[in-house]
Amino acid sequence: MQQKIKDVSNQFEKxxxxxxxxxxxxxxxxxYLSKKGLxxxxxxxxxxxxxxxxxxxxxxxxxxxxxxxASIDALRDKLEKSGKEAEKYIxxxxxxxxxxxxxxxxxxxxxxxxxxxxxxxxxxxxxGPELESDYNNFEAxxxxxDHPARDMQDTFFVTEDFLLRTHTSPVQIRLMKNGKPPFRAxxxxxxxxxxAISAKSYCLFxxxxxxxxxxxxTLAELKGTLIAFVKQFFGNDVKYRFRPxxxxxxxxxxxxxxxWEPKDKPGRWLEILGCGMVDPNVLENVGIDPEEWxxxxxxxxxxxxxxxxxxxxxxxxFFDNDKRFLTQF
Length: 329
Ligand code: DAH
What we know:
Blueprint: H1 2-18, H2 22-33, H3 38-47, H4 54-88, H5 106-120, E1 124-125, E2 131-133, H6 134-137, E3 162-164, H7 169-177, E4 183-192, E5 204-214, H8 219-234, E6 240-247, E7 250-260, E8 268-278, H9 280-285, E9 294-301, H10 302-310, H11 317-320, H12 323-326
Parallel strand pairs: 1-4
Antiparallel strand pairs: 2-3, 4-5, 5-9, 6-7, 7-8, 8-9
Helix pairs in contact: 1-2, 1-4, 2-4, 3-4, 5-10
Bound molecules: 3,4-dihydroxyphenylalanine.
């Protein structure tokens, strides 16, 4: 008898551990405590025991049944409470939750537009790493060590020989070292400069580098390509000009300005890119014969162009991740 009581008790512990809701709890209660339940059966057996054994097993049986009843009651209480708790938080009169759908950042949209304009002009897209060697970023581009032109670009050095690229021009070097001319590609990406942060400058920005190397490339073609670009990007009536400039890796070099008239302010010329004919020294540095190959290069500042195109007056807005700004585009 004792073993039977123990078996039922053990079985009950297993069953109640499986209970997850009030319905399954009720099934357990029926199995053990209803009129056809296991305890009724045990009591029937108990009645047929010899009289002298009755007191001993009677109290064991009662205790076990009471503790089964107590476990069921306690669990029922708990399940009912947590059900009410859950109900408390469901307010069917509340409006539904808005699902915010993400959108492309305005800089990415601008980059995409630039890429598609240059693709339509026959350029492919090539990318390089943001961590760059001093050699690719400066030396191969004809900046000798200690050359003052290095000061034009305040550099974040990572080690003595490695840095965060200050422009996308080193990707020109990678492209030319990894292939054979002719080349016609743009190279978009992030660049870094150790500059004081203000409405006009930020320590991180984007450039789109361009390179065209072939047998008979002319300055006129460079101008034609960039004019086609600004017309597509800013509109056909954009006013532009080329100004002579200096870059160590191009000769001759120029900068392109566009005429800008902000609302309620006098108009002025604004620089949007640098360009020039690739310096023969650069071609030699990557093993291309400058007697045989010529080419042009350009580097466009993405933020500056986006500022102008969309009438934004603070470059920091691009990097603040303020949804009120980002969702306007
Ligand atoms: N790398 C230059 C800068 O960051 C921009 C530039 C100028 C790129 C002339 C060029 C170029 O490819 O030909 O200021």
